[in-house]
């Protein structure tokens, strides 16, 4: 990345996450992700784009090792989070440092809104005092812009909320643990345009505090909110640069074809 | 034009006839149940009084004298009621934890060889005649302990409950969205924590319904109890002594012409108990649906 864009930044941002020669395969000899090298900057939004089946979700899920839920998975290379290889760490520890938001909102149906936000603490057996709990809940819900909407119904079930609200609750649940990075797997693909818009605005606020890596099918979403963009195709990281460059002046022909809607 | 309307008309008739037949036939299926309830109610309601629930079964002589005097048969089924409650409770305590654990295993690793084996064994167990289960428990528990007992009866009922609980647990857990488990794991929780604190609570409605249905199923079991609990004419709280149960009492009353009057009221009570459990299970299943 000898891009001009990278050097012109006034305060060069520290890289929080680094993929080094990462390859992942589900079945022997077939690589879902091939030799990916990339460095993700702190407090920025990085979008991963690409057609279905290009390995973008697999790459995202490798960061918190959720891809290991498939037993036959094989991962090589290094994924450095704050300089430590997550593949060598305890998976549960990694997941506390790398929060994840899924395609469909999935609040815990038996828990109240309040308990949902604190679920990470509860499930990990982290003890917090009553006043700390209140503080965490309020801060996390404010972070995702949900506080004003739900502050009077904190003890109600999360499943009563609308889809967009549920998704913001799920983001609050991830944010509550103060992770180093937030991994989002097409977080707005199940939502209507208005709810999507709200989440996009909120992500722009969130990046002041958090690093966000987001998989998206939606190119205009990537263009709207991301600082840097990756384009993946058939498991390969074809292009990775700042979003403006990738959209206005892509280096690779495949990127150009994808972004101009010639396949996808 | 003419033929067209005729075709339409004949279709309409066919449709009506078919619909009518379906209604009549499905109505027929309800008839046996209604008749059973009516019959049992008609013959049994008179004996259903306070003492029926609080007193032990009368002896043959008392009953005969009362019947000859034109009175109701004194006494009740308290000994059977206590026995049924104790034995079903023991069965629940034994079968529920094992059944739920097995169900978790089956739903978490549905494809593994071991799961396939457990599933077939559970199906086999469910198909085993209950009298055979009674015989087995007689050999395994009654013989070694040297006495018929409520404990042995409880184990026999647990064996009958086990496959039902395994199946209902597996089915309920399978219906939970996979995203729930992912959400828990993604927060850094351990696998066991996710199962115990996310999946099981979410499945509570289904699990509870399954347990209620299993209870109502074994509540009416008679044959295995004949070979294990044997029966007792007095209330027995010691689980290592022979014990009575409601269905066992029906059998005992049947064998004693003087007590025959109690058959119907006991049947009515048992039927109502089981019906209530079933309706309760349905309501809970509806209420706790995710």
Overall strand count of chain A? 10
The proportion of strand residues of chain B reads under 5%
SSE arrangement of chain A, N to C: HEEEHEEHEHHHHHEHEHEEHH
**What characterizes the major β-sheet of chain A?**
6 strands, mixed
Strand order of the largest sheet of chain A: 6-7-8-3-9-10
CATH superfamily of chain A: P-loop containing nucleotide triphosphate hydrolases
CATH topology of the largest domain in chain B: MetI-like fold
Shape of chain B: flat
The total beta strand count of chain B reads 0
The mean pLDDT of chain B is 92
Radius of gyration of chain B (CA) equals: 25 Å
Question: H/E element string of chain B?
Answer: HHHHHHHHHHHHH
How many DSSP helices of chain A?
12
Structural class from helices and strands of chain B?
A: mainly alpha
Helicity of chain A, in percent?
25-40%
Q: CATH H level of the largest domain in chain B: which superfamily?
A: MetI-like
Rg calculated over all Cα atoms of chain A? 18 Å
Task: Offer a few descriptive terms.
heterodimer, A: 264 residues, alpha/beta, four-stranded antiparallel beta sheet, 12 helices, 25% strand, disordered N terminus, B: 290 residues, mainly alpha, MetI-like fold, 13 helices
């Amino acid at each position: 990345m000898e891009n001009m864009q990278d050097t012109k930044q006034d305060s060069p941002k520290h890289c929080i996450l680094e993929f080094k020669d990462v390859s992942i395969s589900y079945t022997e000899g077939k690589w879902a992700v091939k030799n990916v090298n990339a460095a993700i900057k702190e407090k920025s939004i990085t979008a991963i784009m690409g057609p279905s089946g290009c390995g973008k979700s697999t790459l995202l899920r490798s960061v918190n090792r959720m891809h290991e839920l498939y037993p036959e998975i094989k991962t090589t290379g290094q994924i450095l989070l704050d300089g430590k290889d997550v593949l060598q760490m305890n998976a549960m520890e990694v997941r506390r440092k790398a929060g994840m938001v899924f395609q469909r909102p999935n609040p815990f149906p038996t828990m109240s809104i309040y308990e949902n936000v604190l679920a990470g603490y509860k499930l990990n057996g982290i003890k917090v005092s009553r006043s700390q709990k209140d503080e965490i809940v309020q801060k996390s819900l404010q972070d995702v812009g949900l506080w004003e909407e739900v502050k009077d119904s904190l003890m109600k079930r999360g499943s009563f909320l609308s889809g967009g609200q549920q998704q913001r609750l799920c983001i609050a649940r991830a944010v509550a643990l103060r992770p180093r990075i937030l991994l989002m797997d097409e977080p707005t693909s199940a939502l209507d345009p208005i709810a999507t818009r709200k989440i996009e605005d909120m992500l722009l606020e969130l990046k002041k505090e958090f690093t966000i890596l987001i998989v998206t099918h939606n190119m205009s979403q990537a263009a709207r909110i991301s600082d840097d963009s990756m384009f993946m195709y058939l498991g390969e990281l074809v292009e990775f640069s700042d979003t403006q460059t990738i959209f206005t002046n892509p280096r690779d022909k495949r990127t150009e074809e994808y972004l101009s809607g010639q396949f996808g | 034009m003419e033929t067209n309307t005729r075709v339409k008309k004949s279709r309409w008739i066919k449709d009506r006839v078919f619909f009518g037949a379906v209604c009549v036939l499905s109505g027929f299926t309800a008839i046996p149940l209604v008749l059973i309830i009516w019959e049992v109610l008609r013959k049994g309601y008179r004996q259903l009084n306070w003492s029926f629930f609080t007193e032990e079964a009368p002896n043959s002589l008392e009953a005969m004298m009362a019947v000859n005097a034109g009175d109701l048969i004194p006494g009740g089924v308290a000994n059977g009621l206590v026995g049924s409650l104790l034995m079903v409770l023991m069965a629940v305590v034994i079968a529920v934890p094992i059944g739920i654990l097995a169900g978790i295993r089956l739903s978490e690793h549905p494809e593994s060889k071991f799961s396939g084996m457990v599933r077939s064994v559970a199906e086999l167990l469910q198909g085993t005649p209950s009298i055979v289960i009674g015989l087995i428990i007689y050999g395994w528990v009654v013989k070694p302990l040297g006495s018929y007992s409520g404990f042995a009866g409880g184990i026999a009922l647990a064996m009958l409950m086990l496959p039902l609980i395994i199946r209902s647990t597996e089915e309920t857990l399978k219906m939970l969205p996979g995203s729930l488990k992912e959400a828990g794991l993604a927060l850094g929780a351990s696998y066991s924590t996710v199962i115990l604190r996310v999946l099981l609570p979410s499945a509570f409605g289904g699990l509870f319904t399954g347990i209620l249905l299993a209870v109502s199923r074994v509540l009416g079991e008679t044959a295995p109890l004949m070979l294990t609990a044997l029966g007792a004419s007095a209330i027995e709280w010691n689980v290592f002594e022979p014990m009575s149960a409601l269905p066992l009492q029906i059998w005992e009353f049947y064998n004693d012409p003087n007590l025959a009057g109690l058959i119907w009221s006991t049947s009515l009570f048992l039927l109502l108990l089981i019906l209530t459990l079933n309706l309760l299970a349905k309501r809970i299943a509806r209420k706790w649906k995710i």
